[in-house]
Amino acid sequence: xxxxxxxxxxxxxxxxxxxxxxxxxxxxxxxxxxxxxxxxxxxxxxxxxxxxxxxxxxxxxxxxxxxxxxxxxxxxxxxxxxxxxxxxxxxxxxxxxxxxxxxxxxxxxxxxxxxxxxxxxxxxxxxxxxxxxxxxxxxxxxxxxxxxxxxxxxxxxxxxxxxxxxxxxxxxxxxxxxxxxxxxxxxxxxxxxxxxxxxxxxxxxxxxxxxxxxxxxxxxxxxxxxxxxxxxxxxxxxxxxxxxxxxxxxxxxxxxxxxxxxxxxxxxxxxxxxxxxxxxxxxxxxxxxxxxxxxxxxxxxxxx
Amino acid sequence: xxxxxxxxxxxxxxxxxxxxxxxxxxxxxxxxxxxxxxxxxxxxxxxxxxxxxxxxxxxxxxxxxxxxxxxxxxxxxxxxxxxxxxxxxxxxxxxxxxxxxxxxxxxxxxxxxxxxxxxxxxxxxxxxxxxxxxxxxxxxxxxxxxxxxxxxxxxxxxxxxxxxxxxxxxxxxxxxxxxxxxxxxxxxxxxxxxxxxxxxxxxxxxxxxxxxxxxxxxxxxxxxxxxxxxxxxxxxxxxxxxxxxxxxxxxxxxxxxxxxxxxxxxxxxxxxxxxxxxxxxxxxxxxxxxxxxxxxxxxxxxxxxxxxxxxxxxxxxxxxxxxxxxxxxxxxxxxxxxxxxxxxxxxxxxxxxxxxxxxxxxxxxxxxxxxxxxxxxxxxxxxxxxxxxxxxxxxxxxxxxxxxxxxxxxxxxxxxxxxxxxxxxxxxxxxxxxxxxxxxxxxxxxxxxxxxxxxxxxxxxxxxxxxxxxxxxxxxxxxxxxxxxxxxxxxxxxxxxxxxxxxxxxxxxxxxxxxxxxxxxxxxxxx
Lengths: 304, 527
Description:
The complex is a heterodimer of chains A (304) and B (527). Chain A is 71% helix and 0% strand. By secondary structure, chain A is an all-alpha fold. Chain A folds into two domains: 11-73; 74-303, Up-down Bundle (Four Helix Bundle (Hemerythrin (Met), subunit A)). Chain A has helices at residues 14-34, 43-70, 76-115, 122-130, 169-192, 196-228, 236-269, 278-303. The mean pLDDT of chain A is 92. In chain A, helix 3 runs parallel beside helix 8 (278-303), helix 5 (169-192) packs antiparallel against helix 8 (278-303) and helix 7 packs antiparallel against helix 8. Chain B has one domain: Up-down Bundle (Cytochrome C Oxidase, Chain A). Chain B is built from 17 helices and no strands. Chain B has helices at residues 2-11, 21-24, 29-57, 68-103, 111-130, 158-185, 198-229, 243-260, 263-277, 284-297, 313-325, 327-341, 350-373, 375-381, 385-415, 421-447, 462-491. In chain B, helix 4 packs antiparallel against helix 5 (111-130), helix 9 (263-277) crosses helix 13 and helix 15 (385-415) packs antiparallel against helix 16. The longest helix of chain B is centred in the N-terminal third of the chain and has 36 residues, at 68-103. The model of chain B is unreliable at 1-12 (pLDDT under 50). The interface between A and B is large, with 84 and 87 residues.
């Protein structure tokens, strides 16, 4: 503890504003979703207000933290707290994705084969009674009810074979995202050597690659909906595909925004020093994390 | 806001701000701890009132007081409120008050986020409770919200339920990150890991469990939301999903959640038994290792909640043995508590009474858990009142008794005043008798086959249900006495000394009573 004094921030309005913003956000989201069929419903404005309040609060809260940091109020101990805090936050994100990957493994290994009549338990008999025509496969292009309640897809996103590899968007997405992980690392190396130009340039490239990734992902979704007939409503393959890639895409956007903010702070405000740049480092950790998630997706959602 | 930065050296030693803004904008771990504790008390009373409705309906066979639909809403909200609004925030409140004082830290590591974690909760529970007044009523599918009850057949308010669980989860994750970071980074020099007080250890492990499983719960409710409103089929077999998948995901969260609600209790009881035995705690390091083993095992036992859904035989056997394995570290802990008391100079102040009752009654709950772990036996017990008796024995005289013990034990340090010992003992005996009269008979009616979650039952169960209801009213109304005792102590009473209890050890007993607004501005010396 340097100097024996620890900076305990004074009272702050931000937390309760943020809690209130979250309240508006979830109230707005719930009532909007519950009234999707009602065109006269106004609840979406509550949702927008919640978003706006949340962004404003976050902006001013972060500004305050940065100001305090620049004023030299953060002890080394507090800086260490931010490091631990970010690491544990990323761990919680890992567990969030674990739930969806767990669902994917479960349906692929157990649910779909059982529905097609595999296994010794009574469940298999029920499935054969109810849905005799259903056969187990992955990607499963049909549903046990043969599309009565669901819109069956014509084509899946799976690996198309070497002959069509170059037209296959996920491959390009992988290349883009892996390169961006590398460029953000180069930016970090530049900063550690005190080379701001290199830092800004590589960070700029990273943000650009993030945009390209999101664009390609949007294109892929468009193709899925418009040409493949693959939607959220296509049964369990569509469900797992869109939820896993969708949450990943959302995290890419979050990470991209973080990196863009870091870029703006460096370019316009000259923030970050050779040995003092945890704000950037935390964002880059997050970026490597979404990259690792993508590799898992590439393997388990697309290839295998 | 920049004034804050310039003034901070003057701010350092001042007291709390005046008026309501003290509580709204506070960054002080003691204020936030107090907020958490009062909030959980309010939720405890609301959830308790729902339990009274349930027991009033079950007082006699036949339908007398409420409609079956409303009964379902009551059992659902009772569970959700007691778990997410009562027990968990109470433990977070205790962690806020005690962890920084026990490790010699000036405050929690991330004080503003600490305030945010608390203030999300009133909003989240406002949303959850407001669902009672919505079209179709409140959630009615039980606190475990199994699909398809919570998806295909759910009332519209399920959307509000889903989002309130989301923000409760965010609050828990932030609270837990704060505790972990505080413990890892803010210990005074000399407080090494194996010198940490056991309450701190128990919370380090609990926080790890929270960060690991709350996101999984968020994933589960997100899949529900998508199934209900956006056409996915995670939990619908017709689309290739599986309702059992919901149970797997839910219990992967749910089982560690059970330990989240008991590990801090282990920490509390260890301190209290040590103090009132006037001996050193028996087997400190085995206590730590036992808690770690319990936490790790908690990730591989979830399917023991699902023995009757049609699991493959190999899975049933694996989850049965893994579950029984947990009895070993738990047995180590019970042994150590008993060994600490053995030949100690015992006195029986209220906290000690609650702690001893904890050891005895929690062990009963643990043993009925072992019975439930046996697969063929569970086929018989599953979803009967035996299960209700089991988990209420570990949660009420387990988790909640430990929270009450903690309040009696530390309230002199928090308020500077001693509580009324006579009233405290009265509260203990009323609660102890009430809890046993309520839940012990439920073992009998459960073994005799009474299913849980029904508002009506066969005549053969009438007598024990009436006994159980009488006990529940006794227990419920005794808690108003607890409220009175707490308020009386906060308002005044005999002044407490700094050490309060003559056997008490630990940093929190070295500071003044009541503890100063900012405890340690320089780290204390610990050898």
